[in-house]
Amino acid sequence: MPSGKSILWHAGLLVAGASLASGLLEKPKVQGVPQYVMDYAPLCYLHHQELYFPSDLQKHLDNTTPKDDNFNKIDGAPSPLSLTNLNKLNDYGDGGKNVWLTANDDITKDPEWIKGAAPDCDGKASDAIAVAVIMVDKGDDNMDVFFQYFYSYNWGGVVLKAFNAGNHVGDWEQNMIRFEKGKPTYVWYSQHGNGQAFAYDILEKDKDGQRFINYVANGSHANYAVSGSHDHTIPELNLGKGILMDYTDGPKDGAKLWDPLQNAYFYTFSNSTGKPTFTSAEPGKYPTEYLDYLGKWGDKQYPKSDKRQQEILGGISYKFVGGPTGPIDKQLVRKDVCPDNGNPCILRHIIGP
Asked: Does residue 85 sit within a domain?
């Protein structure tokens, strides 16, 4: 991790680099979305070597087939798949939990659709709906807002400088902003099995001092508050060197600026009646059914008999693992800023590991 001095130096570069963002498209105005959600939305920097960019949700469905735990095509599944019928897959595979959106192509051939859409000079990933902005009203004018980012492919990185591990089809990542009385207080960054939470005030911002910066790791798309090298072997601790490395960078290194507001659908979410319910922020404008899907957004982990698979260090990891669940499974209703996963929720008030 950079030192405090280098962070300040880098932040200065960031402000200079962020002036490049002056050409960003105007924030969309969406009925049912408070202005503060737009004003304090993240800006993302994608690593300059990134190959797998934010991906259009419908395009992902167009290139996958629902399969069961035995890698068999599910008879009777809706065809073609769409954002308005994906929830019908919950009728199969133990309420959808054992359904896998399996790539139609051999992903080792790097088909074009898994590469997503690189942001243009305005920070927009052209023709790609790749973000679900989900607002959760907590009462008393307090709100949690989730920016759920979708990528069609996750490149897992290199372990011990020798083994490529942890690749999977489909990748949901997120930032969560906790608002109190319309003011941002904390931001959570998803990182592999855990993540980190920081006070909003200490985060790097754009040139206007409102939108915080989210550094997206090359390939894995984990989210970090600072650029550089990140070892994520130990949950809640990011060191500069280690076994499991992520790499992020900023404008001085040629990172691509992405404004997720330009590629988003907007929703509210409630579980007050015991039934999770997504509602389009602007009535009837955004499909909600795909958010109710309980299955996986990628292939099931390939067996060792699959020629594409490679066992790493006696089964500690594998070259290809299973795809993730979607936003409904991301603890949208939570007490703490962090998800409840058994790890402590450390609310950081300094930028550091």
From this structure: yes
- Domain around 9: 4-348
- Total tally of structural domains belonging to the chain: 1
What is the structure's pLDDT at 234? 74
353 part of a folded domain:
no
Q: Is residue 292 part of a domain?
A: yes
Which of 8-12, 216-220, 258-262 is the least confident region?
8-12
Residue 7 clears pLDDT 60, i.e. is over it: no
The secondary structure of the chain, three-state, reads: CCCHHHHHHHHHHHHHHHHHHHHCCCCCCCCCCCHHHHHCCCEEEECCCCCCCECCHHHHHHCEEEECCCCCECCCCCCCCCCCCHHHHHHCCCCCCCCEEEECCCHHHCCHHHHCCCECCCCCECCCCCEEEEEEEEECCEEEEEEEEEEEEECCCEECCCEECCEEEEEEEEEEEEEECCEEEEEEEEECCEEEEEEHHHCCECCCCCCEEEEECCCCCCEECCCEEEECCCCCCCECCCCEEEEECCHHHCCEEECHHHHEEEEEEECCCCCCEEEECCCCCCCCHHHHCCCECCCCCCCCCCCCCCEEHHHCEECECCCCECHHHCCCCCCCCCCCCCCCCCEECCCCC
Residue 100 belongs to some domain of the structure: yes
The model's pLDDT over 219-260, given as tens digits with 9 standing for 90+, comes to: 999 999 999 999 877 767 777 787 788 999 999 999 999 999
Supply the mean pLDDT for the chain: 91
Global pTM value: 0.92
Residue 353: the pLDDT is 64
